[in-house]
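Notes from the 1:1 (GR / supervisor)

We went over the backlog. Supervisor wanted to see one worked example end to end before approving the batch request, so GR pasted a single chain during the call. The sequence is below; no edits were made to it. Supervisor asked that the structure be written out right there so they could see what the output format looks like.
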Amino acid sequence: MTVRNGVHGEKVSVLGFGMMRFPTVDGAHANGWAPGASNAKIDQEQVNAQVDYSLAHGLNYFDTSPVYCRGESENVTGIALSRHPRASYFIATKLSNFNPSLRSAEKSRDMFEKSLKALRTDYIDFYLLHSVGGGKDPMAEFSSRFLDNGMLDWLVEQRRIGRIRNLGFSFHGSPIIWKWLMDNHPKYHWDFGQIQLNYVDWRHAAQVNPRNLNGEFAYGELSSRGIPAVIMEPLLGGRLAKFNYSLAEKLVPLNPEASLASWALRFAASPPGVLTVLSGMTYMEHIEENIAVCSPLKPLVKKELDVLEQAAQSYLSDKTIPCNACDYCMPCPYGIDIPGALTVWNAAVAERRLPDDPDDPDFPDKRQRFLAEYSRALPRLREAERCIGCGRCISHCPQRIEIPDEMRRVGDLVERLRNP
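Structure output shown during the call:
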C-alpha cells in the first residue's frame, strides 16, 4: 500500500476507510437513515474481519464520527480497532455538534470525551471540525459551533497536550468560511484539511452550484500552505463507481480491464499533496478492490487526465441530481426518503432510461421499469411527491442541492407516469 507523510511524520496509507456504511446482519448497510437498514444491527464480526484485512494489507487510516450510523460508528470502530496495537492505525473522528443543543462548551467537550471512550483510546490522531461552511448564515453557524463557546481554542490546547495529534476540518460549503480557515492558518496551524475532490468536482463543482468550490482550487490553497489534503467523496457517493454510459463510453476504451471506481480513486489520490483518500466501503469486495488499486498507487498520466476531463464534461451533460446519498438531509420531518428518491432518478439517468420522452420508442419499457424501481425503493408515505417544500433539509445538504425543487421534479415525473 502506498503511504504518504503527515505533517508530523505519520506514515498514512493513501487509502482510508470511511466508517459510515457498515454491513448489517440483514445484509444491508447501516448508512444513516437508509430505509430498511437504519435500525438493523451492525454486523460487528464482519466489521472486525474488514478491519483485520485492511490492516494486514497496509490500510491504516480509519475515519468515523459521533453521528455516523445513528451514533453507532465510533463504538463499532473502537471494538474492531482495539483488538490491534494502538500504534498500528490512525483514528480520525470529528466534533459533530450540528444540533444547537450540543454547542455549549460543556456539551461539545463531552462529545470529545465520549469519542475517546467509544474508540477505546486516550488520544485522537486526526480530529476535525465537522462539515464547516454550511447553514443559512455560514459564519454565524461556524462561530456558534466553534468560536463563541471557546471550543476551537480548547481543541488547540488538547493538541498541545497530546490528546489530539492533528487538528483539521472537513469543508462543505461557503467560500466565506474557506477564506476564514485559510486566513487563520497562521494562528491555528491546521495539520490537514478534508475536502471533496473527484474528477467531476475538480474543475466543475462551481458549475453544478456557484456556492461550491472547485476541488482544484481548494487543493491548490491547501498545497500552497503545506497543509495535507484528506479527500472525501472521491466516488461522488458511489455515482462514479456505478455503471454510467457517459463515463463508460470515455473510460472503457482507455482500459477495458479497469473499473470505473479505480479511475476515480486514482484521480483523487494522484496529487502529491493528498494524504489519504476516504472510501466508505460496505463489503469485503469493495475493500479488496480498492486496496488493490492503491497497492501500489499508479498516478495518472496526462493522457488519462485528459480523458477523465472529457468524461466529467459528458457526465455533467446528463440530468443527474448531485446527491451523494450522505443522508445529512435526513430525517425529513414529514418522512420523505430524500436520498432514496434521488437515487432512483440518478440511476435511470446514468443508464439512459429516464422515461421523460413519450415519443421515445422505448418509453413504455422505461416507464414500467422506473415506476417499479421507484415503488420498490420508496413506500408510498415516503415518496417525493409528498414533500411540502418546508426547506428544512436545504441547510444540511453538503452539495447545496435545492432539495424541495428536486423533490418536485421527481414527484412531477412520477405523477405523469402514473396518470398518463
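Supervisor's comment: The radius of gyration is 21 Å.
Batch request approved.
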